[in-house]
Design a protein that fits this description.
about 425 residues; mainly alpha; 22 helices; about 0% strand; globular
Length: about 425
């Protein structure tokens, strides 16, 4: 098959899949799997390449985390934290939103965006349930915060890990160069949040008073299992933070933690947990997306776009940095940022050969990092944390549509990319 024809078919399948997801004509998992198998049936991808495209590390990491969360939920700790948080904010719905935004961003920087979402989303769902308010705006803003926080460190989001391994940048380099931009973007987004929701989030006096009267100490159901779970989670988080050094693999770490907690405390309920508390719909949705994006990579579409941008900037550091930032931001809203970063790295290294001053490469690398991480907020399926969060809410009977998520998140995305652009220009040029 002609290379151009293959590229057009891959792009067509990609667009068609997205239309199905956006319009919600069929289930998102079904849409992604149909798109994936169409790529195989049309010969764009072989079955072997398609299967290799699936990031099994991500899939098993998520399964492990789902098991950990299932055990933690049964101890009552989420309810305890939910009540504590709401009481700290004195039941003020906007203050709760802003507090959870900051907590999510901070935790994502060190725990990873997906891990933070899986821990914190159940908490905000409980808070909203107790206050009798809709959790939708809280979910969306926390997802935004998770991707922003993940951009701040080398371990916060997978693209940063890939960039770190492809360059000489270490953990402190990411902190020194990216964290200030994320702090500025967080402050700006908190301001936008206040503008968007001030006076619009209402809690009745009765529900607020009832929340403040709770005795949260009695909410812990199994103190022994809670102690074991917290120690296990602490060890897991340390291992995740050291993963790049230990080379164990994030999937192995989370699965080990999940299986250990099941073995210790939930052996009798394992079938119920695997059937009802592991979100298989979300997992298979990821499988389909990995394959669809691989179609764009294999046919050269991503590489073509990147080369065109670099041609337009004539390999000059300043315009290239801005182009990379916004190209990464826009594309990462629609495709997984991991294969995008993997495709871009050799191209950026080629730029480094053309640009004689090595210090001028720094803003280009940091621009790609900020663009890919922050751009994930652009749509409901722009980042793993987005998909995971929506999956959790759906299992709790709350449906957030593609457009409902995107019309809010895109404002935060654009604002954070603008802040990042100004930061890059002022600091490096």
């Amino acid at each position: 098959m002609n290379a151009t024809v293959s590229m057009l078919i891959a792009v067509g399948i990609f667009i068609g899949t997205y239309i199905l997801i956006i319009t919600e004509v069929i289930n998102k998992m079904l849409a992604s799997l149909i798109g994936a198998f169409l790529l195989i049936l049309t010969g764009i991808l072989s079955q072997d390449i398609a299967l290799r495209a699936i990031d099994w590390n991500v899939i098993f990491f998520l399964i492990g985390m789902m098991l950990v969360i299932a055990v933690l939920r049964r101890t009552g700790i989420f309810m305890y934290i939910a009540i504590k948080t709401a009481k700290l904010a004195r039941g003020n719905p906007l203050l709760i939103m802003m507090l959870m935004f900051v907590v999510t961003a901070f935790s994502s920087a060190f725990l990873g965006s997906v891990t933070s979402i899986m821990i914190l989303i159940p908490i905000i769902l409980l808070i909203c349930n107790e206050l009798k308010i809709t959790p939708v705006p809280y979910i969306i803003t926390m997802v935004v915060a998770s991707n922003m926080g993940g951009a701040a460190t080398m371990i916060g989001d997978p693209p940063n890990i890939i960039i770190g391994s492809a360059t000489d940048y270490d953990f402190l380099d990411f902190i020194f160069n990216l964290t200030p931009a994320i702090i500025l973007a967080t402050i700006a987004c908190l301001g936008l949040m206040w503008v968007m929701y001030h006076g619009k989030l209402k809690v009745s006096r009765e529900n607020r008073a009832r929340m403040m009267s709770y005795k949260e100490e009695g909410l812990i159901k199994d103190k022994r299992m809670l102690k074991i779970s917290l120690i296990t989670v602490a060890v897991m988080l340390v291992l995740l933070a050291l993963e790049s050094t230990l080379k164990i693999g994030t999937a192995s770490i989370s699965m080990s933690a999940g299986l250990f907690l099941i073995l210790v405390g939930q052996r009798k309920d394992i079938e119920h947990i695997m059937v009802h508390e592991v979100d298989w719909v979300t997992l298979f949705f990821f499988v389909g997306l990995f394959i669809i994006v691989e179609g764009l990579v294999q046919t050269g579409f991503i590489s073509l776009l990147a080369h065109k941008v670099l041609e337009l900037t004539h390999n000059q550091a300043r315009p290239t940095s801005m182009a990379i930032l916004w190209l990464s931001g826009i594309l990462s809203a629609f495709i997984d940022n991991v294969p995008f970063v993997a495709t871009m790295i050799p191209l950026i290294k080629q730029i480094g050969i053309v640009i004689s001053q090595s210090n001028l490469m720094d803003p280009i690398w940091w621009s790609m990092s900020l663009g890919t991480c922050l751009g994930g907020n652009g749509t409901l399926i722009g980042a793993s944390s987005n998909v995971v969060a929506i999956g959790i809410t759906k299992k709790n009977g709350i449906n957030i549509s593609f457009m409902e998520f995107t019309k809010v998140s895109v404002a935060y995305t654009i604002l954070s990319l603008i802040i990042s652009s100004v930061y890059i220009l002022i600091r490096y040029f």
